């Protein structure tokens, strides 16, 4: 068990480098299985989830080579349909390999996925979508078996409308449809930048995808995909976390590389608590946070699919609002159990009441350090941020959750002046 020891009332300053996006990298690593040639994926963050995803690829027979943040993959020899159960059960994105496996090899056998424990997280949309492309699916003894139906060799293009714009299901189906016979039309799909990044990677490998970044994807299947050299986009959730770190410590920071348009929802909320932004160049932003926040009058916000406010920044902004004067309300609409950080924030002195998926936060300047526990990735970063704003020392258990999704988070914070140690 790792602990983070954070001394509060820190001031931050300087520049922070934003790593490649976790959720893009994981999807693109799954997507590499669609190609049978050499693929080079650049700007892959060094994370626990990435290591686990690489285990998944290796367990299928892919050849993987690491060189810093670049990963070289050749999956020509992948023929085995059943990836390592232990790795699949630890990350959500491991399940996304079901798309390429069924499309390229006709069969997949997978354990149900893990990932952050923030709700029930079913995979019904992935499976119903695959059925619409001609797969047959059964769940036996906790494992999903999927194969090309009617004794066929290849999936067939089809139409599927998602009940909800699921990121993972959109990615699974996009990968499957790329190698299906004929045209697929997927509607009400997710528009997250990471979905578009996966589409751009597949297009670089020769896939025919139109509409990435919109709610409808039209995909013309091709026989096979070739290799590519592809660079992952910057992580908007990591960038958002550092913007909130600047706000909660009433500091100024410069962040790059970033794609500002991916951060509109978070920058708007931070502007409403008095933060100012300077776009220094195309991929660099400076945030300046005033020492005293203006009184907040009923700031109400809800998480939602992109371009709405991301659920993956909900715990972090809650830490911030717990330190701002006035009352604010956050409604979590994406995951039914993503309020696990609230009880821990309350131990630090935050005044928060929750009723189902809605938190009412009464800001206070009196957070004080104590021992708290992170039970998931973003709860971990939210508690570290709250610890930086609190008086005295906080001990945050469960730092390994943070390692799942942030590259060298404590080291980056230390370089900005935070007093944070890993025990
Ligand atoms: C590895 C990865 O990319 N993880 C991200 C991805 O997770 P993930 O792909 O799991 O999230 P989804 O977009 O699929 O989930 C959104 C909602 O849809 C529901 N749902 C999803 C699939 C399904 O088959 N049936 C179903 O009901 C989920 O329970 C949830 O309530 O998008 C989430 C929403 O932006 C982010 O929080 C995660 O960081
Ligand atoms: C929920 C998250 O990740 P995952 O889907 O991988 O569990 C996250 O990154 O906040």
Explain the overall architecture.
The strands form 6 sheets. The protein has a 4-stranded mixed β-sheet with strand order 21-22-1-23. A 4-stranded mixed β-sheet has the order 2-14-16-15, with helices on one face. Strands 4-5-3-13 form a 4-stranded mixed β-sheet, covered by helices on one side. It is elongated, with a radius of gyration of 22 Å. The protein has helices at 22-31, 48-59, 85-90, 98-105, 124-132, 167-178, 193-204, 236-248, 264-272, 314-321, 340-347, 377-389, 399-405, 409-415; strands at 3-7, 15-17, 38-42, 63-67, 70-74, 107-111, 135-140, 143-148, 159-161, 183-187, 208-210, 216-220, 228-231, 252-256, 276-281, 284-288, 296-302, 326-331, 351-355, 358-362, 371-373, 393-397, 419-422. The chain has 14 helices and 23 strands. The longest helix is centred in the middle third of the chain and has 13 residues, at 236-248. A hairpin with a 2-residue loop joins strand 15 and strand 16 (284-288). It starts with a strand and ends with a strand. The protein has 2 domains: 3-18 and 234-422, Alpha-beta prism (UDP-n-acetylglucosamine1-carboxyvinyl-transferase, Chain), CATH 3.65.10; 22-231, UDP-n-acetylglucosamine1-carboxyvinyl-transferase, Chain (Alpha-beta prism), CATH 3.65.10.10. It has 423 residues and is α+β, with helices and mostly antiparallel strands. The model has no long low-confidence stretch (mean pLDDT 95). The structure holds uridine-diphosphate-N-acetylglucosamine and phosphoenolpyruvate.
